[in-house]
Amino acid sequence: MTTALPATPDYDAWPIEAHLETLTFSPRLVTVRWSDGRESRYHSIWLRENAADDSTINPATRERILDLSALPGWPEVAGAEIDAAGALCVDFAPEQLRLRFHPGWLRAHDYDNAEDPEAPLATVKLWHGGPEAAPDSLDASGLLDTTPDSETEESILAPALESVLGKGMVRLRGLPTEPGSLEAIARRIGPVRPTNFGLLFDVKAKPDPDSNAYTSIALPPHTDLPTREYHPGLQMLHCLENSVSGGQAVMLDGFAVAEALRQRDPEAFDTLTRVHWCFANTARTTDYVWYSPMIRLDDRGELLEVRIADFLRGPLQANFDEVESAYAALMTLQAMLREPEFAIRFTYAPGDLVIFDNRRLLHARDAFEGSSGHRWLQGCYMERDEVRSRYRMVQRRRRERRVAAKGQQES
Ligand SMILES: [Fe+2]
Q1: How far is the CA of 12 from the centre of ligand 1 (A)?
Q2: Residue 64, SS3?
Q3: What confidence score (pLDDT) does residue 2 get?
Q4: Cα-to-centroid distance, 348 and ligand 1 (Å)
Q5: Which residue of 41, 158, 183, 256 is 20 to 30 Å from 102, comparing CA positions?
Q6: Mean pLDDT within 276-282
Q7: From ligand 1's centre to the CA of 13, what distance in Å?
Q8: How far from 273 is each of 25, 176, 262, 315, 339, CA to CA, in Å?
Q9: Cα 362 to ligand 1 centroid, rounded to whole Å
Q10: Residues 32-82: tens digit of each pLDDT
Q11: Distance, CA 170 to ligand 1 centroid (Å)?
Q12: Residue 360 Cα, ligand 1 centroid: separation in angstroms?
């Protein structure tokens, strides 16, 4: 008689929050009742595909090798029971194969009761700014001294990632100010996305600039690289020096502005989700162009991204009859972006690193006096996927610790 729990079809740990108590089955369905009274139904084909045995999953990669269409027939349940280890055992016909399912994994993937399996990893909170507002700030002074993937590193990164996922930004403080150290810091989250501006880019006034960012003039609220089909989901700006007068940083939650626009002027909102604008960065040696609405919704109507940068907009090429309404909507949006109630303003201190969602937040800066000192930020890009992957790993480690504490190990 086996008392060890079966493997799961992934690398994760799944604490057992409730036990399997009873079950019933028919050829295409297994219905289980848990110790807390919940009832879950699992289709036979779903169970067959999600088994963790070596005919379904390559144990070396934990990726699926099963081809459902190669089975001798539609998988049906010939028998089912809860075994001594508390696992669900199913006899599949016509394969004549007995497979076991980990109860913690089954419960965590209970699609019969799931409210929203695609819900964001952290609650998304839209925010307004104003004179008293400040970014979520965390002391990260020890970050580069921690061991990668250690609990100490996680204690700094976890709240930072939660702020980025929920509010679209975080300010880490107390980091080193050596030029180039941003790459090592960024790698604690994930790989950097290189662009034609380099792996890291220097934001400072320089001769012969190839972007307005590399001058001392004010920059209006914008997202970076709207000229790309897939513009970066994340931007990091790391302050190495800041002794100039002016140059205050400004951040706005583009989703909060878009929602306010949806309330105040639904027609303008609709126009900006529909009309494709031209975004162009035609420098001396590169020529990036992409057409996109300024506000994009997902197929549920939720905000997916904003893409706004007046200085990177090419000539509008819309339907003739839509040109004036497109500009009217744009100007309504531009006026809202200047409303102080949306903006967080702050001054970078050396050692600050601001991480923000570049497809949600807009950033801007005041003009500064180039002769009054030095202002040097280094920046880089990354994808939202890296934040989500890193945060999922944080959650996995937490589950592993819960499993270890409960003594619920797999075989
Ligand atoms: Fe920028």
Answers
A1: 38
A2: strand
A3: 59
A4: 15
A5: 158
A6: 95
A7: 40
A8: 48, 41, 10, 18, 21
A9: 8
A10: 999 999 999 999 999 999 999 999 999 999 999 999 999 999 999 999 999
A11: 16
A12: 13
Residue type, 25: F
Run of H or E including 399: helix 384-406
Ligand 1 midpoint to CA 177 (Å): 20
| CA 133 / ligand 1 centre spacing (Å) | 21
Q: Separation of 237 CA from ligand 1 center, angstroms? A: 9
Q: 20-119 is classed in which CATH architecture? A: 2-Layer Sandwich (3.30)
pLDDT tens for each residue of 308-332: 999 999 999 999 999 999 999 999 9
* Mean pLDDT calculated for residue range 20-39: 98
- Compute the distance between CA of residue 231 and CA of residue 234 in angstroms, rounded to an integer: 9
CATH of region 137-392: 3.60.130.10
Q: How far apart are CA 92 and CA 86, in angstroms?
A: 19
Q: Where are the domains of the chain?
A: 20-119, 137-392
CA of 71 to the centre of ligand 1 (A): 53
